[in-house]
Amino acid sequence: MSDTIRIEQALSDILGSVQTEDAPPRLAAALRYAVFPGGARIRPRLCLAVARACGDDRPAVTDSAAAAIELLHCASLVHDDLPCFDDAPMRRGKPSVHKAYGERLAVLGGDALIVLAFQGLAAGCADAPARLGRLLPIVSRSVGLPSGIAAGQAWECEPFVDLSVYQRAKTSALFAAATEAGAAAAGVAPEPWRLLGDRLGEAFQIADDILDVAGDAAKLGKPVGQDAAHARPSGAAQLGLEGAIRRLGVLVDGAVASIPDCPGAEVLRAHVLQVAANLLPAEIAEQAA
Amino acid sequence: MSDTIRIEQALSDILGSVQTEDAPPRLAAALRYAVFPGGARIRPRLCLAVARACGDDRPAVTDSAAAAIELLHCASLVHDDLPCFDDAPMRRGKPSVHKAYGERLAVLGGDALIVLAFQGLAAGCADAPARLGRLLPIVSRSVGLPSGIAAGQAWECEPFVDLSVYQRAKTSALFAAATEAGAAAAGVAPEPWRLLGDRLGEAFQIADDILDVAGDAAKLGKPVGQDAAHARPSGAAQLGLEGAIRRLGVLVDGAVASIPDCPGAEVLRAHVLQVAANLLPAEIAEQAA
User: Considering only alpha carbons, which residue of chain B is nearest residue A136?
Assistant: First the structure.
């Protein structure tokens, strides 16, 4: 089964398991709207790729971990787009959740997606409590305090912000959770896998900053120029476009170099390089040359 | 150690564990503000009381379950008070979180409290993965879809609402989680304990509806008349004040009768009756006579 099918199936199964006839229909619809169709699903793909490199002996556990990571990512997008934050009208090429379903269902939808990540993890690990014991701290800390997504977003509400602390929390935390959870889902010690996620997360964030400066709103499916508009810290603003593109290359090299010895290391290195190659459109990447 | 000290200590420890110096200070402060000082802590007390009745052989597990239930309750209050829902200026006798810290930190604060419940559960069950495997589905489903708190709140966004479905999700779900989690934390099968939580939750909800009609805002620390103002379904409106007070009595009797055989059943029955006696102020309860 391809990773695409595996991820979409896992997400669909988890959503389906709670979208029963006693669920409030509009909230259920808002959840599905927030999750499908997805973006690049880069985080759950990374989780699967690491699990596979480590043997992936409990695929149901891996699927629930990958789906949890993606659901938490979707939740953060729904809440980030709210009027009190970015007030973003579009996301993934269609109206954002609060535009389509109203602000109340966007708040509740984000909440329910966070919770669903943990419901799914519980279900996927029903026969593997020891793995659940490793996964739950990894997944939960990636979205909370002190250094998960909610903390990252909250740095935007502080008068003084350290760019690297901000970005590590807002973006790298969930990438690090994806690699650590991939390893833990396969029964392997997660800590050595953290660096891969950290570096890929930082690479992804800087690519996102670059696209916000130099990208094309129509191709991205969301507005550009948002970092400047919201006075958000930005790597592209701090390093300049060329400096940011150079930094991206250094981070990708570091990510590849960090991959621990494991049965599938070679395939995983190729996966990481392919992910990295897709972070920027060719016309922007060429400016670096 | 009294239950009060035990609960406050558990909450304080969990909050302290994530309020490190790399956490965004205003979000960290908003979280503490949302949790302390608490209300009656009725849900975590119930969780502890059930665990004790079942032996409470792993107090750290019990504490993390009770704290998780309370953190999820606090999260729901923070989000319920937001401008797009109740726009409540006051909560527990002081400005609501969005009034004190702004709407963005109220959204993120609720998110972070939800996540913290699971971080705390992971930490408390670090040496008890089998118990974690029982607790995580109980705790997570109580706040998600199809019938947890977020679903309950979302029924307010639907054109047609069944009062009992709405209230079961919005209130009873977390009470049922408190009793089930208390049993599961003590290593006992949780299902037989669900009815106690369901009935107490329904009793609590109808008492809340009664207070919203007949209570005193100054004593409650929050505005009254909110159900009518927001056109929310209300048991007191549906049954009339006297009918609602009668229904409350039936539910409390049913709750006491539902307590399964266990070593501490007698003490637990007394606890439940005491909780019930405090649901309404004497002057309102006397109207029923």
Answer: B122
